[in-house]
Amino acid sequence: DGGITQSPKYLFRKEGQNVTLSCEQNLNHDAMYWYRQDPGQGLRLIYYSQIVNDFQKGDIAEGYSVSREKKESFPLTVTSAQKNPTAFYLCASSRLLNQPQHFGDGTRLSIL
Amino acid sequence: KQEVTQIPAALSVPEGENLVLNCSFTDSAIYNLQWFRQDPGKGLTSLLLIQSSQREQTSGRLNASLDKSSGRSTLYIAASQPGDSATYLCAVISNFGNEKLTFGTGTRLTIIP
Fold first, then answer.
1. Does B51 touch chain A (CB under 8 A)?
2. How far is residue B12's CA from residue B96's CA, in Å, rounded to a whole number?
3. Which of A75, A101, B28, B61 could form a disulfide with A92 if both were Cys (CB 3.0 to 4.6 A apart)?
4. Is any Cβ of chain A less than 8 angstroms from the Cβ of B18?
5. Residue pLDDT, tens place only, A8-55
6. Contacts of residue B89 in chain A, CB cutoff 8 Å?
């Protein structure tokens, strides 16, 4: 079945450590997105990519980095500069920008 | 800047009742509006998408309406079931800055058996 796979499901970060969240899709979608979800708040866009080798900052990109070397993959790195990384991270993809987005099951990141 | 609001934040209703969830947005220049369902600890499942030119969409027991002029959408759930318990999120894509969905904070729905 086609879909979006996020891994790991749970991730723990130590102080000063960078961690990378994986997102893979086999839907042949061009656009991919990373969102952050905090309790009591809506999802907020971190980064998005319209096409391979291109990505743009969303509303809360500080302390995060991404790459888009392959169409299927859009990993998110949470750097040590992100002082409040504890959250639920959701990856999504769509055929093109403005098209319906399909979501993965998320990664929950916590601080040790 | 587009803002999306969902009230109430939580709702409990007995099984079998019909119910309406509300979503409002500040900028009526939208490209489309989506309703999602989220189960605890899970990702989002798309329920219905309404294009800006449409007034409503239906899928099974779900019906979503859109009134752009008033900046409102409603999600109607008929004959509610315990399996409908989840958080329901609405999100819009605006005509400008339309690379992203702007989400509401959701309504947590509990259906009481």
1. no
2. 36
3. A101
4. no
5. 999 998 888 999 999 999 999 999 999 999 987 889 999 999 999 999
6. 42-43
CA A72 to centroid of chain Cα atoms? 13
Separation CA A62–CA A67 (nearest Å): 15
Tell me which chain B residues have a C-beta less than 8 angstroms from the C-beta of A103: 36, 43-46
Q: What is the pLDDT of residues B6-60, one digit of tens each?
A: 999 999 999 999 999 999 999 998 989 999 999 998 999 999 999 999 999 999 9
pLDDT at A98: 78
| Among candidate residues A13, A5, A35, the one with its CA nearest the CA of residue A81 | A13
Q: Assign 3-class secondary structure to B50-62.
A: EECCCCEEEECCE
Helix (H) or strand (E) holding A90: strand A87-94
B100 with A48: Cβ contact below 8 A = yes
CB contact under 8 A, A106 and B43: yes
Residue in the block written with tokens 């189960």: B39
Contact, B83 vs B15, CB < 8 A?
A: no
Q: Which chain B residue shows the shortest CA-CA distance from A46?
A: B100
- Give the pLDDT band (50/70/90) at residue B98: low
Identify the pLDDT of residue A1: 59
